[in-house]
């Protein structure tokens, strides 16, 4: 079928989901988390690129990959979805841009473990945002999980008060789950109003905004050829491709399953940075991280059991 009739053109991602079994979706999500987890160890191999230049190149390569891949998949339908997506699409794109930018800046300021444990609070912050802005009622288990996870993050922050760089990095990292909570609240509001946010174009918008905003701050460029190759890897294989694969897996898996499997990024990321870059996590990160991850696992597992019991 020709690209001149995008309305009749099947969505390859949706077609791929139809042939995806549950076990394969689980395996795909595990692969996605492993790809996401390479950010820390790869960043530690950079020679000269730093801070906003790292962020710019990663976002730029992500944008390039998304344009090429989505353009091949959707043809002119991609550009139509960008034109007609409405405010919810662009709000979502703005949230993605904050996530892309804050994540990489945080990695240049503090350890991989600090960043990833902070990111693990995302599902709980999203639940809290839904309560505050949409009126979703939260069960007692989720309130308890938010309190425990908050204690874990506070413990990590308290241990970093004397280290301005680590504390700044963790605070910047906290922008990622906050932006993620705003993103999912926006998606739920769009769905409630009868519209759906096309998430892949939103990721593309996020990469474009992130690259545009960090370009002035990244100039003049100092990255070596090796740095560009590593940042190209991050843009394509750590972000663009796993983002699309995760959308396929999420079409088959239930939300609690996705949330639990996504925690593997924390474990993989810390392990890769430890083995590949000698970045051993501090004891406070271990203890605080156990509180955060334990709270999320308990909340999602109890929610899954309650949902099964209602069938």
From TrEMBL:
Top-level taxonomic group: Bacteria
Keywords attached to this entry: Membrane, Transmembrane, Transmembrane helix
Domain EamA intervals: 25-157
TM region(s), chain numbering: 25-43, 55-73, 89-109, 115-134, 141-159, 165-187, 199-222, 228-251, 258-277, 283-302
Protein species of origin: Pseudacidovorax intermedius
InterPro entries, A to Z: EamA_dom (IPR000620), EmrE-like (IPR037185)
Taxonomic lineage of the native organism: Bacteria, Pseudomonadati, Pseudomonadota, Betaproteobacteria, Burkholderiales
Assigned GO CC terms: membrane
Protein name in UniProt: EamA domain-containing membrane protein RarD
